[in-house]
Amino acid sequence: MIDVDVRLARGGFRLACAFRCEGGAVALFGRSGAGKSTVLGVIAGLLRPDAGYVRIDGESVVDVERGVFVPPHRRRVGVVFQDSLLFPHLSVRGNLLYGRSMARGGRAVQPDEVIAMLGIGGLLARRPASLSGGERQRVAIGRALLSGPRLLLLDEPLASLDYERRLEIMPYVARLRDELHWPLVYVSHAVDEVARIAREVVVIEAGQVVATGAPGDVLAPARTGGAQGGFAAVSVIEARVQAHDARYGLTVLEHPAGPISVPGAIGRPGDLHRLLVRATDVALAVQRPRDVSFRTVLLGTIRDIDTDDGPLARVEIVLRGEGRLVALVTRKAIDDLALDRGDDVFAMVKATALDERSMAFAPRAR
Amino acid sequence: MLTPDELTALRLSLKVATVATVASLPAGIAVALLLARGGFPGKSLLNSLVHLPLVMPPVVTGYLLLLAFGRNGPIGGWLEAHLGVVFAFRWTGAALASAVMGFPLMVRAVRLSIEAIDRRLEQAAGTLGAGPARVFASVTLPLAMPGVLVGAVLCFAKALGEFGATITFVSNIPGETQTLASAIYSYTQTPGGDAAALRLTLVSVALSLAALLASEWFSRRFERSVRGGA
């Protein structure tokens, strides 16, 4: 459990951030410069707030008013930095075991277990300089875990990596959450990372918390700064694996609004999956479309249409059964199809937009 | 090849330079750390004081040492009375003079390498549970090692060649304070001493060159171990 209420001013930047989360995976989400990493620094003890407190599992690690400041090395908070910050003079093994010798009575985890989970067994004798960016980040995650922290902070751990490397790391972070059930705070400006990893999202803008909630509610919010701001909107749909279609290499997931086809073999039948759908990847039809290539057609009802003078409109759809989907279409299409609130529509999603790579295991309730 | 007297001067020089380097290393690292990391009033003053021997005439340094560490000097008198340590006209005094003269070179090299360390590596060590002392021993010092080695070698080479401050402070006593440099000086002042002076000069050049090459080798090796593969 983490409880944060801090204020801090540095130069022209003002941070006033308060949120509390019960375990699990929390994401701090916002643009670069919004103050996410500053919050992380305050939690880790690398920055001192001007006022306020941070409590981890009920213990104050900093409380300005009460004069409490626990130095970083006594906080038992592990940090994975954006640029990994591995010790260049130590081997991978030396890096991994660095924090381990200072047993901190936190969560115990065996090196073999972590090394196997992160797939870094073959790197142990190497120096950090000879590792790829993705390998470095995996080692950095392992190093933080092996110091036995009660809370793991990840500061844009994928931001310095290219797309392929990001895909390489993402499953490992998901495994931290799902297999080790490690409490983690994940800072990112990438909506797909946040949607995949977080159980709870704290949105930070210009040093202020502007929204807190489940990824599905926060990442494709009902209210936006106009339709043009909908580019970044991502809907989160949860669905269960129904069957694998080996012949076509597809996985079909069942959803009350319609079957969802996803490339690749994913999970086992009955598994719950979290699908991310960008608003830009959704097309709309007023009648069940025929003779189109879309294999995923979901029935829903328009709850809201957000337009302004711009060319685009943002359509919020309540799916049959459960779930919300946001579509970004042209304003002209709205008028041509005469779409309005309350209308039933068919939302079409391209299979490539649902590629395995945009999926993650849903965080399991604990 | 060398006469017994010349060998004595060589051995003494090596002893003086080694003791001067080893004894001043902890202080050199501490001062370098303070200058690189500390934010305190009087930092520029400390920096200037450390560098003073580099720019003052060596004879001034030597004379100041004599005033302070001589048997009647405030520090020298106290040390003799309480610890039985005497610097004046002893080889220990030669080591002290050499150390003072080599100190700026050592501090400079160490400071530069400490300043080049990414401080966030130290922060990372902190988040892994390492307290300040451990961070210093396991991250800062190892990463500053090239500078420490280079600083030590420069200090050693400087100590080996120190002349002005040494001869002023501890004079030029064969077997006690007559180092290579003072011996060469004596030979040049002695009729027929040219051959001996030249021999010792060659020895001196060889030693200095070897020291510099050694420091290069250490730096490169360290560089490789940090950047290289396995």
Structure, explained:
The complex is a heterodimer of chains A (366) and B (230). By secondary structure, chain A is α+β, with helices and mostly antiparallel strands. The longest helix of chain A is centred in the middle third of the chain and has 16 residues, at 163-178. The model of chain A is unreliable at 358-366 (pLDDT under 50). Chain A has eight helices and 21 strands. Chain B is built from ten helices and no strands. In chain B, α1 runs parallel beside α5 (91-115) and α5 (91-115) packs across α7. The interface between A and B is medium-sized, with 30 and 25 residues.
Question: What tags apply to this protein structure?
Answer:
heterodimer, A: 366 residues, alpha+beta, 8 helices, 20% helix, B: 230 residues, mainly alpha, 10 helices, 80% helix
The tally of strands of chain B reads 0
The run of helices and strands of chain A is EEEHEEEEHHHEHEHEEHEEEEEEEEHEE
Strand order of the largest sheet of chain A: 7-8-9-3-10-11
Distance between the termini of chain A: 13 Å
Portion of residues within helices of chain B: over 70%
Helices of chain A, by number, come to 8
What Rg of chain A is obtained from the alpha carbons, in whole angstroms?
A: 22 Å
Please tally the β strands of chain A and state the result: 21
How is the biggest beta sheet of chain A arranged? Answer: 6 strands, mixed
> Assembly type of the shown chains?
heterodimer
**H/E topology pattern of chain B:** HHHHHHHHHH
Task: Output mean pLDDT of chain A.
Answer: 85
Mean pLDDT of chain B: 90
Q: Major β-sheet of chain B, in short?
A: none
Q: What percentage of amino acids of chain B are in beta strands?
A: under 5%
Brief synopsis:
With 366 residues, chain A is an alpha+beta fold.
Secondary-structure map:
The complex is a heterodimer of chains A (366) and B (230).
Chain A: E1 2-10, E2 13-21, E3 25-29, H1 36-44, E4 51-56, E5 59-63, E6 68-69, E7 77-80, H2 92-98, H3 111-118, H4 133-146, E8 151-155, H5 163-178, E9 184-188, H6 191-197, E10 200-205, E11 208-213, H7 215-219, E12 234-245, E13 250-254, E14 260-263, E15 272-278, E16 282-285, E17 296-307, E18 312-319, E19 324-330, H8 331-337, E20 344-349, E21 359-361
Helix pairs in contact in A: 2-4, 3-4, 4-5
Chain B: H1 4-37, H2 43-55, H3 58-69, H4 74-82, H5 91-115, H6 119-127, H7 132-161, H8 164-170, H9 180-189, H10 194-227
